[in-house]
């Protein structure tokens, strides 16, 4: 006996659910890549990415997922043998660092933990120890999609600045851009990167990089530059140089539509929507946790990300299978160190109250059906929170 006929809901942290308008925007003939319309599409997106990253710096569009975009960022500012400092807080900054190591970069890690955010004071101490300024860049992630942690990028930027150390500050905003505040220039970020398929509500396949003037100065002598990713090539005046070849026209139509929708909602409203829905999820999880079988991965409430909640649980597979097979809700599995020990509820991008409350309702249904001990009334707590916060 199942209740899954109807629209399936993908509640994983990327690729995320896309608006119908975004899907429809791709259902058309391509543009002549030499036409004015194509040039305007490119320039409009480059401009609006600057707004999303909150930077006056240059922006770049790559045909790549997040991993490819990591490489785009690294190749443009580093040389073989350079040293970088990776701020551990889960899986993703570490993954970015592993890519760097494979490219011949020496990686120093600031040990972190999967259950908490990066400590800015520790970043400051690590940089102060590097009196010879051998560290060329500091890598961090705003929201680690594996652990669910939110790192205070502004505070880390201040800590770096306080040392006077010249290392570039490079930030991964794949799981946060367009969902919560990101202030590249104000926070002292030199290189920021993101991708299309999470908060930006577009199919996987586009990667975005933004570069400060300082990063572009360092770029001039970077030894790892490659023809496709190279900023200098892309800064050329010809339109084809902006894409190092044929533009990914349909993905750009999709991204255009999605950004139009974000701007129509208003970024501050988008951020508030994410905050409200994330808190609703946390209210439910907090109640369920009273049963002792599950709990938050991130210990400190203020360090929990507004785009994904990672829930620790001894054996989450039966619950995930129940939600998928009986109800058509697909939750994220635990990855990396949390493989088989956690599940993830995504609340990023094209999500609203019925999607989130429906997802929470299904999880609670699964806990009940499987006899997993849990505090009663998680969904009620989420509903009450939203009812008190979203006024008539
Ligand atoms: C998803 C994700 C990535 C990797 O993106 P892919 O498109 O899967 O390569 C990198 N960083 C963060 C924070 C992510 O959430």
Describe the structure.
By secondary structure, this protein is an alpha/beta fold. It has two domains: 9-17 and 267-389, Alpha-Beta Complex (Aspartate Aminotransferase, domain 1); 31-262, Aspartate Aminotransferase, domain 2 (3-Layer(aba) Sandwich). It contains 13 helices and 14 strands. The chain has helices spanning 20-25, 36-53, 66-77, 92-102, 120-129, 153-163, 213-219, 231-234, 249-265, 267-288, 317-327, 353-369, 378-389, and strands at residues 9-11, 58-63, 83-87, 106-110, 135-141, 143-144, 149-150, 168-172, 191-195, 206-211, 294-296, 308-313, 329-333, 342-346. The strands form three sheets. Strands 2-10-9-8-5-3-4 form a seven-stranded mixed β-sheet, with helices on both faces. Strands 1-13-14-12-11 form a five-stranded mixed β-sheet. It has a two-stranded antiparallel ribbon with strand order 6-7. The chain is globular and about 60 Å long. The two termini are 38 Å apart. The mean pLDDT is 97. The chain binds pyridoxal-5'-phosphate (PLP).
CATH class of the largest domain: Alpha Beta
Please state roughly what percent of the residues sit in beta strands, choosing from under 5%, 5-15%, 15-25%, 25-35%, 35-45% or over 45%.
15-25%
Number of domains: 2
Name the average pLDDT. 97
Largest sheet: 7 strands, mixed
Oligomer: single chain
Task: Specify the CATH homologous superfamily of the largest domain.
Answer: Type I PLP-dependent aspartate aminotransferase-like (Major domain)
DSSP strand tally = 14
Low-confidence spans: none
């Amino acid at each position: 006996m199942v209740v899954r006929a109807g629209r399936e809901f993908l509640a994983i942290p990327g690729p995320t659910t896309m608006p119908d308008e975004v899907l429809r925007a791709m259902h058309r003939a391509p543009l002549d890549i030499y036409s004015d319309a194509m040039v305007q599409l490119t320039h409009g997106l480059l401009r609006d990415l600057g707004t999303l990253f909150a930077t006056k710096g240059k922006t770049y569009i790559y045909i790549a997922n997040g991993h490819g975009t990591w490489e785009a960022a690294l190749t443009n500012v580093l040389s073989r043998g350079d040293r970088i400092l990776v701020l551990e807080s889960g899986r993703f900054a570490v993954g970015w660092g592993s890519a760097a190591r494979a490219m011949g970069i020496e990686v120093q890690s600031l040990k972190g933990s999967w259950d908490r955010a990066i400590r800015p004071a520790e970043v400051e101490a690590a940089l102060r120890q590097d009196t010879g300024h051998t560290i060329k860049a500091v890598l961090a992630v705003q929201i680690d999609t594996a652990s669910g942690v939110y790192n205070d990028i502004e505070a880390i930027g201040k800590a770096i600045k306080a040392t006077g150390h010249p290392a570039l500050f490079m930030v991964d905003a794949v799981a946060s851009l367009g969902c919560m505040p990101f202030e590249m220039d104000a926070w002292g970020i030199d290189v920021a990167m993101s991708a299309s398929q999470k908060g930006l509500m577009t199919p996987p396949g586009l990667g975005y990089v933004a570069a400060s003037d300082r990063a572009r100065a360092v770029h001039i002598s970077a030894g790892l530059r490659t023809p496709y990713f190279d900023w200098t090539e892309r800064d050329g005046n010809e339109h084809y140089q902006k894409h190092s070849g044929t533009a990914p026209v349909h993905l750009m139509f999709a991204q255009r539509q999605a950004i139009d929708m974000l701007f129509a909602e208003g970024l501050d409203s988008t951020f508030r929507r994410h905050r409200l829905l994330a808190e609703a999820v946390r209210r439910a999880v907090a109640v369920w946790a009273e049963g002792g079988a599950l709990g938050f991965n991130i210990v400190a409430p203020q360090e929990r990300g507004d785009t994904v909640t990672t829930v620790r649980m001894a054996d989450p597979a039966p619950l995930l299978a129940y939600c998928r097979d009986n109800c058509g809700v697909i939750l994220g599995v635990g990855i990396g160190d949390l493989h088989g020990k956690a599940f993830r509820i995504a609340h990023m991008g094209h999500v609203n109250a019925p999607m989130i409350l429906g997802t929470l309702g299904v999880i609670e249904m699964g806990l009940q059906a499987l006899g997993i001990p849990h505090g009663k009334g998680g969904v009620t707590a989420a509903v009450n929170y939203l009812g008190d916060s979203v006024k008539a």
